[in-house]
Amino acid sequence: MDKKFLWWIFGVTKGGVVRAKIVRLLHDRPRNANQLAKKLKLDYTTVRYHLNILLKHGIVEASEHTYIVMYFPSDIMVEHWDEFVKIYESVVND
After folding, report:
1. Where are the beta strands (DSSP E) in 5-89?
2. Do residues 85 and 77 touch, judged by C-beta distance below 8 A?
3. Beta strands in 12-83 (DSSP E)
4. pLDDT tens digits for 32-84?
5. 62 with 69: CB under 8 angstroms?
6. Burial 3-36 (b: 16+ CB within 10 A, else e)
7. Res 94: pLDDT
C-alpha cells in the first residue's frame, strides 16, 4: 500500500469520501455494518458495498463472532495511518 493507492481509494474514486469516513470510524473502535450505516446515516447496502471494497483491498479486516461480523482497520492500514489522515482531512468536509 502506498500513497498513490490511498489517494486512489479515498480521494479520487467515486465513493472515496464514504470509504474514508468508514475507516475513520473503525479506527475509533470496531463496528458492524449496521452500526456504521446508522452512524453515517447511509443505507445498509451502501455501507456493505464500501466495506467489501475495503476488504478486497486489504484496508479493513472482518472478525466473525457468532453471527455478527465486526470490521476494523487492517494492520497495514494502521501502519499508513498518518498518510490516511492527511488524505482524509483534504477530502472530507465534516
Report:
1. 60-65, 68-73
2. no
3. 60-65, 68-73
4. 999 999 999 999 999 999 999 999 999 999 987 777 899 999 999 999 999 99
5. yes
6. eeebbebbbeeeebebbbbbbebbbeebbebebb
7. 61
Residue count (the chain): 94
Query: In sequence order, which residues have a C-beta less than 8 Å from that of residue 54 and are 6 or more positions away?
Result: 9, 19, 22, 23, 60, 71
Number of H helices, E strands in the chain: 6, 2
Cell triple for 24: 475513520
All cell numbers assigned to 80: 499508513
CB-count burial class (<10 Å; 0-12, 13-18, 19+) for 50: buried
Q: Which amino acid is at 15?
A: G
Q: Supply 53's cell numbers.
A: 471494497
Does pTM surpass 0.85? yes
Can you read off the three cell numbers belonging to residue 13? 474514486
